[in-house]
Specification:
377 residues; alpha/beta; Rossmann fold; 7-stranded parallel sheet; 6-stranded parallel sheet; 41% helix
Amino acid sequence: MAGMEANKTGNCKLLSVVWFKVLPPKFGGQKAVAFFNQHLAKCAPLICLCSKNNESIATNYRIENILPVGKIQVLNPFAWQKIYTAAKREGITHLLLEFPYYGLAGMLCKKLLGVKLVVNTHNIEYLRFKEQKKWWWGLLFHLERLILRAADAVFFKTEADLNAAQRKFDLTPKNLAVIPYGVDEMKGFNKAKARHIVQQKHGVEANERILLFAGTLDYVPNADAVVSVEKNLIPLLNQQSFPYKIIVCGRNRFKKFQYLNDLQNDRLLLAGEVDNIETYFEAADVFINPVLSGGGLQTKTLDALSYHLNVVCFRSKTVGISNAENKIFSVRDGDWNAFASKIIAASQRTTETPQAFFKKYNWRTIAADAYKKILAC
């Protein structure tokens, strides 16, 4: 078979299948895919087969945005055919799935074309939906187990996810690897200039601390976090002599989450999906991550650390993050009194994120490690 023969000769040609919008990358989940592909493409030729709502931006790999838009696309046999056709036409050796949802199509390509199947997970999916009390989580468990067991290599964002998946799905250890989210160190920016821009745009007073939260708001854990900020955190901060504004940035496109726009509080500013999210990270004094539910690595926290911001979050959301001593101010889950106190403490300390952090979460190193695992499978 063409795919198997190419792999034997040491050649590698990758087809990355992405079912959701990642281009241009703005948020953590989008960056996790776009930047991973960008650096992986430096190791081997890569084609990104993605949904039609991705933009054909300039990058070092080829973009074919021909898949349907929407979650049910993964059940669409015509979408499966597009993946199979692209893999066969391009002589693909390794099929890289972002999330396991196109796994049945991937298994078909593996059987018919002899390609190696690699799944890049971002969470343990069935656990995420079990926590949200979706009735179909049990079906997803069996599907996820089937696909990950069939894969030649499976990547996880954290050691905790790897160990849990290995135990729950009875996976072969040699096929598994931790391939974390990466960042680039942000340096040389003008914080005073960024702060002035945000102050002028949102009416933030000169003496007010800017507390930033950024993430997709049409996602239950993030939406619940914003509600908790308004209900639990702001009343506690208002009891202190602490001038501040909380700015929330993020996409909110679905009708079911529009209730967030009705939150009324002069301390809470919903900025929406901003074009220049970098300016908000540069301007912020503290990044707050009030998320309590959901799984996986908190990419938003890593992004904040790349800007040398102090981060206040709940302890369960520090899983998989290391080498960030004196930058993460974590508290027991649900302890809003401690959360408020940590915000004040974090706003009074200015230190740079350790270089050990950037060494561990360097995209080039991460992609190189992933490529070694791909070649070994």
